[in-house]
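new request in #modeling-help
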Amino acid sequence: MKFICEKSKLQDAISIAQKAITGKSTMPILEGVYLNAKDSKLTLIGSDVDVSIETIIDSEVIEPGSIVVDAKIFGEIIRKLPNDLVTIETLGVEEGNNIIQITCKKSVFNLVHMNPSDFPELPAINETKLFSIPQNLLKNMIKGTSFAIAQDETRPILQGILFEVNNSYLNLVALDGYRLATRSELIDSENTISSVIPGKTLNEVAKILEDSEDVVDITFTTNHILFNLGETKVISRLLEGEFIKYKSLLPQEYKGLVTVNRQDLQNCIERASLMAKEGNTNLIKFELVGDTLIITSNSQLGKVREEVGVNLQGDEIQIAFNSRYLIDVLKVMDSDEVMLELTSSVSPCVIRSNETDNSKYLVLPVRLAR
Amino acid sequence: MKFICEKSKLQDAISIAQKAITGKSTMPILEGVYLNAKDSKLTLIGSDVDVSIETIIDSEVIEPGSIVVDAKIFGEIIRKLPNDLVTIETLGVEEGNNIIQITCKKSVFNLVHMNPSDFPELPAINETKLFSIPQNLLKNMIKGTSFAIAQDETRPILQGILFEVNNSYLNLVALDGYRLATRSELIDSENTISSVIPGKTLNEVAKILEDSEDVVDITFTTNHILFNLGETKVISRLLEGEFIKYKSLLPQEYKGLVTVNRQDLQNCIERASLMAKEGNTNLIKFELVGDTLIITSNSQLGKVREEVGVNLQGDEIQIAFNSRYLIDVLKVMDSDEVMLELTSSVSPCVIRSNETDNSKYLVLPVRLAR
């Protein structure tokens, strides 16, 4: 194998393929990145058990072939090379077995490589796209829901995000026992799908997705999802099992509707939670008095009282929250104003934007001892 | 006590005083910042056993007084407040003992405070300045030497930097068993001083010093050094004991003089050391062949060969180094070109700038087994 390519392009490609390489596998081959040079293209693949990422760059291929090299050291070498053309070739047996040479200007590296036939094959996917969505929109939907993925491993299905396609809408839903996040966007698809994708895969996908309107094509099989970004493809295993019927968790009505500036509310909650760290409860109390929301918290350290002006329609409700759950929601919302739908001190609070219908968040209150 | 001051000024002042607060003390009072309001000024002091930092800001003092508050939570509260005037006052006993109230717009915090009489007094220092030096220059001298401070605790004196005033020069010197760094600048002082200041103090001082030509006045007593920056004063204990007679360690002559572009050399060494991490030895070899410096390294991972063009006067010497020690030196040097003075494969290498005489670095080679 021998090929020549630009250092910067190779560096970017390694960084993409590496996102699949967790280093936690027990198979040493999965710490490697697979390189295939053929037909003026260099294909790089990184993989662990759950997810594989393939990316393709232009390359001058002098002798086609495949190798697998340790992704970490290979990535570090390429990153440190000067910004010039890089030549990579396998050496003959007289130089020792399984050696590649990396040359760039006056730098020459000899590096051990692994056997490419040991590298797992990508799952076969019949690439009929089911729907397309702009990359920036999907990225936003993932970021807007992934914070609510369950962190504990007792219910594995909740460590993923539900991708639900229904009536020309794509809904992303994540929930743990305390909050729920859902984002919904219109797409051009007549299909009906309900699949759960591991959260860690989606966090890596979000890093690869660009802030552009270029689309990503999405294909599902029984066991896998394929994100096709053109030069880059991400294939992930789906989570097995059925997701919680989340729609029944969302209240259909409310007794008090609070409209408030999002940043003001977030600032007040963040300050109030400084006093709520004692015992790691993050407990803060909301009290509505006319068009004022009073937020209080106290602990051994002292106490705090915050006031923020709101528009209240309906009941003056008192309710307590874990401040972290509210901050997580407010951070991922984009709108200047947010609306809180409240019913009682023991009913879930629904938070949504007043501008669009695309985000809906639910946070459970903390029941206070009487 | 009651005073009013600007949030941003108070925040900056806390951040300065906090640099003395390590949180490692067994005395809870030393986790606090001392506040004194008097004569339109607010004085803040942070302290641990070795170092104290005092800083003064303008304040509207309504009722003079002193308190000590937990520096971490107080700093967090002030940082999160809106950018406006902050009022801080002690409350009467009916609100509970030892409570201060912090008010800013619609935010009200009640916070426990500690007894200011428990806070240690600053060491008395007769403030006759011994010499002055521009802040940016001293900052640079500290950064140019502190990397060579010994990390192990077997010789405590080497955990400090020698401040030597002699013949109108200020010399800063740090060394461990493997390398030595010295920076020297002309100052206006007829005194002769030789004192060793703890490295961790100086790292905090370097953070407080500004990138400006404004001077810092320096005063020594038998046991302390005082850095006076005007609004801010840093007082540090000196290290006890005698510093190593470093001048005898610096070779007076050499057999080969290598002049090389600093960044080129650093890049080559950084690449070569990628292959030198095996067993954590960082071993790289230098070979001079005419006007070429060949740098090689190898390990179980593979091997690397780098070439960099140099100007060589004298002998073609071969020598091996721990790459980290060379990189540390090259990183803190400012000049485009550096000079390496070499004598043999077992003699120390002296690295200096070709433009000024103010920096001199010494790195011991690694002796290779034959």
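bot summary: The helical segments of chain A are 7-17, 71-80, 135-143, 199-208, 262-274, 323-332.
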